[in-house]
Amino acid sequence: MSALPPENTGKLPHFVSKEPFDLESIEKLTPEQERIYFASQLTLMWWKFKQHRVAVWSGVFLAVLYASIFISEFLSPYDMTKRHVKDIYAPPQGIHLFHKGEFVGPFVYPYKVTRNMETLQRVFTVVDKKPQPLRFFCRGDKYKWFGYVKSNLHLVCPPKKGSFYLLGTDRLGRDMLSRIIAGARISLTIGLIGITVSFVLGIVIGGLAGYYGGWVDMIVQRMIEVLQSIPSIPLWLTLSAIMPATWSPILVYFGITIILGLLDWTGLARAVRSKLLALREEDYVLAARLIGASPKRIIGRHLVPGFMSHLIASATITIPTMILGETALSFLGLGLRPPITSWGVLLNEAQDINVVAVYPWLMLPVLPVIFVIIAFNFLGDGLRDAADPYK
Amino acid sequence: MVPTLLIASIVIFTIIELPPGDYFESYVSELQAAGESVDPKRIEYLRQEYGFDKPLYERYFIWVTGMMQGDFGYSFEHERPVSEVVGNRLYLTIMVSFVTIIVTWLIAFPIGIYSATHQYSWGDYGLTFVGLLGLATPNFLLALVMMYLANIWFGTTVGHLMDQKYLDQPLSWEKVKSILEHLVIPVIVIGTSGTAAMIRRLRANLLDELEKQYVVTAKAKGVPPTRALVKYPLRMALNFFVADIGSLLPAIISGAEIVAIVLSLETTGPLLISALQSQDMYLAGSFLMFLAALTVFGVLISDIALGFLDPRIRMQGKVDR
């Protein structure tokens, strides 16, 4: 548009500039600006999420944990069910690197077991004379990976003719570390399956309420109110108490996850409903309707993506409640039962005040519980911030 | 409120009726396992007496109408009316919940204000972290550890809600003192998770409020900082504080149940578990009903309090949360 029209001499002649019209002539976007302005929604969310450092690290931590449940047998030094009759209630064994000022590499000192004849307690004393180096990528207890692949490869093995109880042993002499690693498989997946159940229920029920409104909405609202007014743990207790005792542990596992999910959908359904109601009034939905988009397309293409990110964020925040719920139920003996091993089942053994006093390492399974819950909380915070990247 | 309770009663009744068999079946099989013989006539009589031969909806009807008249059914396990079994324990549950809420407020309030006014400071981060830790630690384990520590440091035997000698005695000064002593640990344990959640929500709410223009205006025209905080933003945040009781109460009662079992408090928790295990359905059902009613009443009270606090809600005629 550099060529100006001729001077005003009465009647204006028809003028068309011959030069090609350049869209960006007024404001040229630098490549940097272009990158930001044309970024997709997902990219924007990712950028926003990255700003929350703690959330990113929590996400990495959880990803590693979840990845580890695929190879828990490989990671654990012992078979989790193997009983070491001589080492009942053995305290944690520390890993050392230096023996008498000399570098040996990771090793442990063996225990000497005696019995205190007064209290009849086993007394474990560390004999720090002969270091027993640990073995890595070694052959140890046999296992069947996912019930099919036979192997005996472990990341760490106890020294030959020695023992390696990093976190001690329980009342049957089973290695706590191996049991905690095995328990992760159950405890971590229970949250995921439970949240899937409640997610599906929440979207369907909340979606129906938000879309149809009217009496459907009324009923759903009342139902949510009722479910939220009954304290959750007594309700969980009741539901898990009515599961027949004859069920196999696997069935009980699924029963518990479904119970946890069944009572948890209310919050999500409420979020879906209110979001749907709010988004329904947006201009772009009206535009879509005017163009003639079908309700199915409007919901699937325009409404659901609008609140999906919020839903995922709030789902992340509710996973901890499920993990804690399972732990509490199992702790009370109404949840999972051995031979299934979860962190809650492990904590069930720490029910006694004597345990706290004499064998405090039996309470160690609480640490992964705490870490996982804090990590999920941070991750959820980060996701929630990222869900609305324009803010 | 009444419809809510009515639906709750249907839900609870369904849940209680779900397991196959009834109390008498497990009772008979238990006796038989112990090698005793049971007179089938007596069982049959009991069944008829308590309406177990009637269809489901009729039994539900009997149960609900009974409750309205103050008859909560009969506990087979304790062989006493439910209201007698529950009675005292319900008061204790209410007391523990009430004290916990007060303590939660007392702790959460100043910390929440501090966190909001000192956003992103070390104090804020530290307190947030401590709060998260409280949220993440399973209550029952905290209870165990506290029990142990109290035993070592103060030499008190923890567990129970009062010295056993006061259990069936009328209220006296000594008894109150004993209860107060025993109340400390349960309240701390139950309160931790609620407090953490409360702090986070108060902080978020107050932050939203502090960003608003009237605060800027107040500061700009020279209102002293404390007054600019206390006069309006805090009042707004207080509103939600009261409204939040609706979500706080179920959580506290839930937490109280588990902690009560670990610490063997004389509240409803341990009874509920044993009732569930022996399919003592009237006892379990009435318990759940009580707990639901307790929450609904709590919410009602908070709604009324809100009406007093905020004229806008009073005029609107409903609570907008």
Question: Any overview of this molecule?
Answer:
The complex is a heterodimer of chains A (391) and B (321). Chain A has helices at 31-37, 41-51, 53-68, 72-75, 176-212, 214-229, 232-241, 249-262, 265-280, 283-291, 295-331, 343-348, 353-358, 366-387, and strands at residues 96-99, 102-108, 111-116, 121-126, 132-133, 135-145, 149-157. Chain A has a three-stranded antiparallel beta sheet with strand order 1-2-5, with no helix packed on it. In chain A, 54% of the residues lie in helices and 12% in strands. In chain A, a hairpin with a 2-residue loop joins strand 1 (96-99) and strand 2. In chain A, helix 5 packs antiparallel against helix 6. Chain A has two domains: 49-70 and 179-387, MetI-like (MetI-like fold), CATH 1.10.3720.10; 93-164, no CATH class. With 391 residues, chain A is mainly alpha-helical. Chain A contains 14 helices and seven strands. Chain B is mainly alpha-helical and 321 residues long. Chain B has 15 helices and two strands. Chain B has a two-stranded antiparallel sheet. In chain B, a hairpin with a 4-residue loop joins strand 1 (74-75) and strand 2 (80-81). The longest helix of chain B has 38 residues, at 173-210. Chain B is elongated and about 85 Å long. The relative contact order of chain B is 0.13. Residues 317-321 of chain B have low confidence and may be disordered. The interface between A and B is large, with 40 and 47 residues.
Shape of chain B: elongated
CATH architecture of the largest domain in chain A: Orthogonal Bundle
Classified in CATH, the superfamily of the largest domain in chain A is MetI-like
Name of the level-1 CATH class of the largest domain in chain A = Mainly Alpha
Largest interface: A-B, 40 and 47 residues
Helix content of chain B: over 70%
Strand segment tally of chain A:
7
- Cα Rg of chain B: 24 Å
